[in-house]
Amino acid sequence: MSELINIAVDAMGGDGSPKKIIDGIIYNHKNNKENFFKIFGNNNQIYDLINNKIDKNFYEIIHTSNSVKSTDSPLEAAKKGKDTSMWLAIESVKKKESDIVISAGNTGALLVIAKLNLEMIENIDKPALSALWPNKKGMSVVLDLGANIECSSKNLIDFSIMGSSLYKSLYPNEDANVALLNIGSEELKGNEIIKETFQKLNEKKNINFNFSGFIEGNELMNGEVNVVVSDGFTGNVALKTAEGTANFITEELKKALSGTLLGKISSILNISNLKKFKKRLDPRLYNGAIFIGLDAPVVKSHGGTDYIGFSNSLDVCNRIIKGNLINKIKENIL
């Protein structure tokens, strides 16, 4: 058996845990035998869920009865001690016992505990929260999505390098095309920081991506750019707006196709196209935000996703390690 990728899993975070987490591991393992799961959580709850579902050569349970709650503030989570499932999972990566860590738990707590345990990559001042978004041609990496409200031009340049490194790790056969999210595409638009970042990226010759200048919010899905960079405030607003719009369109379409007899007939006639539409907007396919800038990758699964969504975030973990993300960032950071 070839060397497995070691994924540290916080089994107690998110809605419906640990069952959802364990079901996600079982579902993922059916399709991928490259991962070993170090599962942190309450053994009394976890064992019955996983026993005889996966070969014991592919997982280990590390027992703890303590966990971070969704209602805990980041400070409260950190003060709970070093025996929570989230802390122990992150510590496993710190000790080089695991390659990557994933949790569906409290986002703020995860970021704080990760920063307490893990070192920053040299020459990076701030980590960023990134995620995958669908576009017309495939997928985009978008960052920062809320880890840093205020950013300098140095931070945005670092995010460009980290985001393009992440994209190349996940999609090694494609080029990274980076753009800065702005209120206009002209060079004179935007605040001083983003204009300064634009100028510096235009002048750099040794960057590992194509720099495409500015991009406006209405162009995020056109596929011409696959790495979108912004400060955390702007990125978070864009993310929530995109999620809300997708949900609105899906719900309104459901109403239109089920409210009248003609709508119901139309939905039956177009069932194949409707399934494709539903799959394209299925948030489970894009589950798994990545906290990058630290010397080990930390993945945040959406707390409200189901086991399929969690399984997809495990696939992201696998691809990040196989794509050698941390070394890519270290090689390219300025």
What's the arrangement of secondary structure elements?
Blueprint (H helix, E strand, L loop, with lengths): L4 E6 L8 H13 L3 E7 L1 H8 L8 E5 L10 H6 L5 H10 L5 E4 L3 H11 L10 E8 L2 E6 L9 H18 L6 E5 L10 H12 L6 E6 L11 E3 L2 H27 L2 H9 L1 H10 L8 E4 L5 E3 L6 H16 L2 H8 L2
Q: What does this molecule look like?
A:
It is a single chain. The protein has 334 residues and is of the alpha/beta class. It has two domains: 1-124 and 293-334, 3-Layer(aba) Sandwich (Isopropylmalate Dehydrogenase); 131-285, Isopropylmalate Dehydrogenase (3-Layer(aba) Sandwich). It has helices at residues 19-31, 43-50, 74-79, 85-94, 107-117, 153-170, 192-203, 232-258, 261-269, 271-280, 307-322, 325-332; strands at residues 5-10, 35-41, 59-63, 100-103, 128-135, 138-143, 177-181, 210-215, 227-229, 289-292, 298-300. Strands 3-2-1-4-11-10-5-6-9-7-8 form an eleven-stranded mixed β-sheet, sandwiched between helices. Helix 4 packs parallel to helix 5 (107-117). The radius of gyration is 21 Å and the shape is globular. The two termini are 39 Å apart. 44% of the residues are buried. The model has no long low-confidence stretch (mean pLDDT 88).
